[in-house]
Every structure is written in structure tokens, then in C-alpha cells.
Write a structure and sequence with these properties.
By secondary structure, the protein is α/β, with parallel strands linked by helices. It has helices at 23-31, 54-61, 85-90, 114-125, 151-156, 160-179, 210-224, 335-348, 367-379, 394-405, 423-432, 442-457, and strands at residues 12-17, 44-45, 49-53, 76-80, 101-107, 130-135, 184-186, 197-201, 236-245, 249-258, 260-262, 266-269, 276-279, 282-286, 298-301, 303-305, 308-313, 326-328, 360-364, 384-389, 413-417, 435-439. Bound molecules: guanosine-5'-diphosphate and magnesium ion.
Length: 458
Amino acid sequence: AEVNKDDLRSPICCILGHVDTGKTKLLDKIRQTNVQGGEAGGITQQIGATYFPVEVLKEKIAPIDPEEKQVFKTPGLLVIDTPGHESFTNLRTRGSSLCNIAVLVVDIMHGLEQQTLESIRLLRDKKTPFIVALNKIDRLYGWQATPNGGFRDSLAKQNKSTQNEFDTRLQATIVAFAEQGLNAVPYYNNKNFAKNVSLVPTSAHTGEGIPDMLQLLVQLTQERMAASLMYLSELECTVLEVKVIEGLGTTIDVILSNGVLREGDKIVLCGLNGPIVTNVRALLTPEPLKEMRVKGAYVHHKLVKAALGVKISAPGLEKAISGSRLLVCTDDDDEEELKDDVMSDLKDLQRWISTSGKGVCVQASTLGSLEALLEFLKQGKIPVSGIDIGPVFKSSVRRASTMLDKGHTEYACLLCFDVEIDKEAEKLAGEMGVHIFSKMTIYNLVDDYKAFYDNLME
Ligand code: GDP
Ligand code: MG
């Protein structure tokens, strides 16, 4: 078949890892270009994502590929901006191409930390191919920087003692990955990308290793992404965030990972009180990066193509749920079927609820994070009696309190992940004897609950 170059879509890359490992800094470093003025080298800032066209990737990879031998089969790379698993857990649509590849950032001075382990678990669950950026190599004692250079050239220029320190830390990291059942190898020694995890030493400060990292991302996505995924096909779209914007009302930020969206499209998505059916009023991306960007100024689009991050303004989005799939209802579609389809994601989660009627109540910010939390609780053999999405109000507290009536103090608990807790609800919980656990990481949340449980059972 004839290949239509206009119908190519870009792979999507997520960055995740422990806090302070340099996720934001790495992305900032990639965003820096030498091109002056206007839109920096065609890099476009989108909603929740940054788009790097091939020209920019070429320029960045040049230090290790001076003869431009690297072949590019996609128009560019879309990197999801909000680093952390808030966004990653959201990119959950089944069988999807939502996150084609991930970069797990590890601080070479710290090794594997708590959120690194949590990230590994998420990546495994979703079977997402990933590489490891072993970041902050510039902190190795005596490191002499070659700004934006390839890693191996840089390493060759270091003193023997610095090279030794690198080796020691590299080996320690490899052992730590082995403890997680993963065979990690420096990417330049990796002979089997499907089996082994590649380690790419980087520095977000000096830019060293970034050419290596980008080249590896390009190579892996091209190799491991099915050829069909590189072409625009059926619509695949996920709600990342629900936001109230002055002048626009409630909007949704979505990642369009495949297909096309048009102004006026009838869309169907999952809402807290049932399915939402509405029409796209506007498709918005931020103004191009100029020296002085007017905050909150948007470019309107009649039509957008994957992969990109876009803000949708439409009536009736107040109860939209982050993590929901978004479908477009054409004249050929059965609207009722689509409604059932989007709501099934929320309904599916009911299967986690214990049939015994006993268990803790769980509340999270998004469909994806709720699912991740539920999976984690299951592994910890902690039963769940109720689930909800969004802020904690009095009704959630009352529901959890029914465990007290049943004589199960240990389950009269609300485990809250990344959600706001209403003051009145907090007060009521105190009065009723319901324990609220609220944490920004799933690990800490579950650990806190376990400690409480063990303490109570002693
Ligand atoms: P994030 O929480 O993973 O997004 O981490 P940040 O990007 O905010 O970085 C955390 C801290 O580490 C900041 O003070 C950064 O300047 C610093 N940092 C990040 N990358 C590097 C690096 O490659 N080398 C050094 N020396 N510091 C880094
Ligand atoms: Mg950050």
C-alpha cells in the first residue's frame, strides 16, 4: 500500500521515577535548543506534553551521529510533561498505544528508591517498554564535563578514579535491578532489547548522555512499535486533567494518542454521575513559545491529529473523570453503546470490592490512580468495601463509618490518594472515629495503613 507521510503519528514517551531524580530537569535540557527566536526549532509546548520534531531530535543526536546515519520513521516524539505517575497511571487505556515508551529516571548517587520500585511495578503491569536514565553523572567525584556530549566519549576523558567510581555505582545499580528480577545492562552492551533493560548514563545539568538517550528512544520506538501504530487510525484519547479555566469554564486536558479530533465533534466520556455527552466547543493548545508568552493565551484549532496534548472546552464537563477514555460519536455510532463503553472503565473497578462486605474505603483522583491503588491493596491482601473518585466529602466518611457498626475498627478507614479532603468531612471523621490516611504515594499510603492495622491487632 502507498504510504501517506501525512498520516504518520508520533510515539508517546512518559518520564517517571523517584522525586528529585531530575525528571523535570532532563526535559528542560532537551527543550533547550540553539535555534534562536520564534518557536524554538519547532518544539511545541502542548497541553501536558512537549512535541519534539525530527529536526530537533537530529540536532540533539548529532554529537554521537555526525554523519546522520540514524533513520527516522516517525515525524517526532511526544513527551508527556507532567512527570510522575499521576500522569502515567492515567495513561491506562487497555491495549492502547498511549505510552509507547518510558524513561525511568534513577539518580546514580542514590540507586533505586521507593518510587523507582513503584514505577517499575507500573511499567511491568502495563507492559510498557522502558529505558533507564542513570542521571546526575556530573556528580561523580572529579567529573569533567563535555557539554551535550555523547556518554562514552565523556567517560573516556575522565580520570581513572572517576571511571572507577562510575563502574562501582553502575554495578551496584545492576545488582539492585537484579533484585527486582530485571536484567539491566549499559545500553551500549545491550544485545537483546526485548529482554534486557538499557541503562543510559545522563546529566541533566551538562547534557551529557542526552544524545544517547534520545537515539535509544528513537531506535526502540521504531523497532518495538508495531508498524501499524505509526499510522493514524482509530481515535484513542484519554482525559489527563479536568480544570476550571477563567473565561472557559470547566475544560478537559486530553492526550490524543491516535486519530483525529474536530471542533464540533460529539464526544462521550465517563463522568462521576454517569456518562457525559457533549460537543467540542474549542480545541486549544498554548500559544507558541515566545520570549514573552501571554499567560493563558490559546491557539484555536479546527482539527487536531495525534499524537498531541490538547485542551477541550465544551459544555457540561464539570463531572468529567480524569483517566476516562474519550470517544467521538459519529452518525454511524450507537450513542448508548458508547456511553456503556466509557462507563465500563469505572464499573470494572467495582470488581475489586470484597464480597464479604468488609474492608477499607478507597478514594483517588483519577481512574488510573484508583486502579493502581486497588491493585496494590490486593497484593497486600487488604480488603476494600467502597471506592470513589474525587474530593472526600462527609458522605465518604459516613460510608467508611459503617465498618464501626459492624465491629471492624480496623476497616473504618479512608485511604486517600492525591485527593482533597473537605474540612467538614475531616471534622466528622474525627468525631465518628474514622481514620483518614492521605498520601501522595501509593507505597506510603499502604504502609501507613498497615502500620495502623498491625498496631491495632497487637
Ligand atoms: P524531579 O523531581 O525528578 O523532577 O527532579 P528535578 O528535575 O526537579 O531535579 C531535582 C534536583 O536535582 C534539582 O535541584 C536539580 O537541579 C537537580 N538535578 C537534576 N538533574 C541533575 C543532574 O543531572 N546533575 C546534577 N548535579 N543535579 C541535577
Ligand atoms: Mg519534577
